[in-house]
Amino acid sequence: MSRREFAKAEGCSEGAVRYALRQKRLVARPDGTLDPSQLGGGWLRNYRPKSKSRAKSAQVAEVAQPCAEIPADVAHYHGWDFPEFLEETTDAMGVFLPIGDRLRKDLETIGISAAGYGSSLLDREAYKLGWRGGGDPPADVGLSGMDDAAPIGPEAEMDDLNAQSLNFGLVRRFGRAMAPDDPDDEDAVPLDINDPIAVGSRMIHLAVHFYMEDLKRRRRAAGIVSPRDRRSG
User: Fold this and answer.
1) Bridge-partner residues for 151, per DSSP?
2) Phi and psi torsions of 226, nearest 5°
3) Which helix (H) or strand (E) holds 90?
4) Which of 75, 138, 153, 208 could lock 61 by a disulfide, CB 3.0 to 4.6 Å apart?
5) CA torsion 13→154→197→14, rounded to 10°?
């Protein structure tokens, strides 16, 4: 079964299946498909420990915003009832990440900080493997000569969510979309649209801002004020 078919049969998201594969709770065949014998939810039940917190969230998964509650079936579909999303886990992340006391329990701030931290870790690993991009101006490392159809990695790969070839043409399409609107703006950070690491890092940065602005819009429409809206207080 494909990951999409497996997720549909289990009543969960494909993202939850991909996460379980990374955690080795599901095992894929060499061709990437999954054995139907793994169906039945055992990979979920065996992973989720029983606890008072789990029992409390069995019917409704709680969220920080008072305007919304997440139905249990929706939480299950997205994997939000995994232990990683319990309050004690997010509280620990708030302590671990460099977040001030006032925002340490704010889930939006934790998510933003975690995304930035993860991006920096990936940049550091790339640097250890020879990447020297992201400079001002960006260093010319010969990537501009790569053909659009050339795979980013050593062999051709497809993105399993968007069904797109991971090649330099895709990198350039995203890079062009994120290039500064005004290249003469002194505050604009130059971007090498041929560099997969530089483009990927900029994508994470931009995605975080998408989340921040849309959540702000939704809070305002619902009349909710979060700790992030009280910065001047």
Assistant:
1) 167
2) -100, 170
3) helix 87-96
4) 75
5) 0
pLDDT tens for 37-80 read 888 766 765 444 444 444 343 333 333 444 457 888 888 888 88
Torsion of CA 184, 187, 192, 197, to 10 degrees: -170
The span from the CA of 39 to the CA of 233, in Å, is 51
> Do 205 and 178 meet the contact criterion of CB atoms below 8 Å apart?
no
Taking alpha carbons only, the member of 155, 150, 191, 154 closest to residue 168 is: 150
Q: Over the stretch 147-203, which tens digit does the pLDDT of each residue have? A: 999 999 999 998 877 788 999 999 999 999 998 777 677 777 788 899 999 999 999
Q: Which two tokens stand for residue 61?
A: 């998964």
Contact 54, 88 (CB under 8 A): no
How far is 127 from 73, CA to CA, in rounded Å?
42
What pTM was estimated for this model as a whole?
0.69
Structure token pair of residue 175: 């890079």
Amino acid at 142: G
Which two three-digit tokens encode residue 91? 């509280």
Q: At what angle do helices 3-10 and 14-22 cross, to 10 degrees?
A: 110
